[in-house]
Amino acid sequence: MSTRPPTLREKRRYLLVTIDPPGTEINQKDLYYTISDATTQLWGDVVAALIMPAVVASEGQFVIIRCLRGTEHELATVLSTISLCRDSRIALRMVAASGTIDSLRDRMRRVKIDREEICLRDCTFDKKLYQISQCNGQKVDVIEKGFKNTNRLFLTKEDLEEL
């Protein structure tokens, strides 16, 4: 059986999505069923069949989801309504959309490198020295350096004096 020529193939789009909170382990199959059910509940069976959502890959806190071209906005709307997968409370945040999986994998690598560079540094806030424990987008969690009475703060990048 030969493959279809490119002009007869269905055009697809791939969405790069992050799972919040970070470190939440989600089974790919469970996530697929959650997205499929949410699509059917929000848009109905006919539109869900047009969107054709599928979970393609899952790496750490990143997930790549496939849909048909032109339905990315509907799928992004569905992803914003999901708050529970099995027994885990989650939020799915769309990072990017692309026509190829490779470009999304490159984007995942860049995001990971940027976060690692930020998380390896120390910072100051209110003239005290803090160590960055976690950095997700604009949110930064810091722990005060010291032995006694260490405080944990939840800041944004703009709050930090040195970064």
Helix content: 25-40%
> Can you identify the CATH class of the largest domain?
Alpha Beta
Taking the alpha carbons of the first and last residues, their distance comes to 57 Å
| CATH level-two architecture of the largest domain | 2-Layer Sandwich
Superfamily at the CATH H level of the largest domain? Answer: Ribonuclease P, Pop5 subunit
- Main sheet strand line-up: 2-3-1-6
Mean of residue pLDDT values: 84
User: What's the tally of helices?
Assistant: 4
Reported for the largest beta sheet, the result is:
4 strands, antiparallel
- Strand coverage percent: 35-45%
- Total domain modules: 2
Work out the number of β strands: 10
Structural Rg: 20 Å
Class computed from helices, strands and strand pairing: alpha+beta
User: Helix and strand succession?
Assistant: EHHEEHEEEHEEEE
Outline, from the CA principal axes?
elongated
Low-confidence stretches: none
CATH fold assignment of the largest domain: Alpha-Beta Plaits
What can you tell me about this protein's structure?
The protein is an alpha+beta fold. It has two domains: 6-114, Ribonuclease P, Pop5 subunit (Alpha-Beta Plaits, 2-Layer Sandwich), CATH 3.30.70; 121-159, no CATH class. Helices cover 32% and strands 36% of the residues. The protein contains four helices and ten strands. It has helices at residues 28-43, 45-51, 72-81, 101-119; strands spanning 12-20, 54-59, 62-68, 84-85, 88-89, 91-98, 122-125, 128-136, 139-144, 152-156. The strands form three sheets. A four-stranded antiparallel beta sheet has the order 2-3-1-6, with helices on both faces. A four-stranded antiparallel beta sheet has the order 7-8-9-10. A hairpin with a 2-residue loop joins strand 2 (54-59) and strand 3. Helix 1 (28-43) packs across helix 2 and helix 1 packs across helix 3 (72-81). The radius of gyration is 20 Å and the shape is elongated. The model has no long low-confidence stretch (mean pLDDT 84).
